[in-house]
Amino acid sequence: MRLGHRLLHLALRCGRALEPDFAWWLGGALGHAFALLPMRDQRRCREHLARAFPQRDRAWIARTACATFRHAGRMALWTLSTLHVPARRLCRGIAVEGAVNLRATAQACRRGEGTVGFSGHFGNWELLARVGGAVVPLTLIGRRLRDPELDAIVAGMRSDAGSTRVVYQDEGAIPCLRQLREGRLLATLPDQDVPRLAGVFVPWFGILAYTPSGPAALAAKTGCPVQPTYLYRRAGRWVIHWGPRWLPPPGMEARAAAEHLTARVMAYEEALVMRHPEQWVWWHKRWRTRPPEEQASGGEPASSAPSV
Question: Do 261 and 202 fall into the same domain?
Fold first, then answer.
């Protein structure tokens, strides 16, 4: 067995041995310690928070950056410690926001009508992948790992609810279209800058950010509704948030419709992140790719953020 496989199996065994409450505490302590290290991710986290929240002072930026890494550590260890818990049992401890929208999606699935789901790297997207399939027929779009055995382990962790499937980005659009025709919720995470994927520039905290447009293009092509769905921490418990269902604008050209839907969903996610900024991955290079006009001028993303 390769070293990577051994380490992963060791992590899974250790996670099973942890009590979830202790895992939550330990993850927070480790995340806090990691936040204090003078490393690139920590510096980038503070810089991006300052860019997104230029009205905030240095003290708030530092506190929120630290809270971001605490949340990441808690999310990771708590999720690891509950991998052996059936998804349906985990659902019992999760509150629901937008129950009307959830019912509308479930009814659409029963009628054989597909939905393009939008989520993001906010809250606990791994838990959302696990419990979502216990609620509606769910298909995840994911990136294939280089190691087939590791990929199989990760895919298995995400699909323990029984009705969850995985489609890989490198398989193209045809499998995704097939999942929609079967009346499934096709789940995507398009809130990161991924240059190898087709995308559009839409606002993210007031600054244009390159965003994958494939999910919205699928909705525009098929006429399927889109629905933002997230799972985050609020008042000491996990909450699954079912946003409104939006149809592609009628009569709009496909590319314009995809850009419109992408911008609308990113604005919706931004509003949630504004309320809980510590639960988003601020160390990600969200504004890495710049529009052609900025590249031509050699400019940087506009920002009035203070130096950190």
Answer: yes
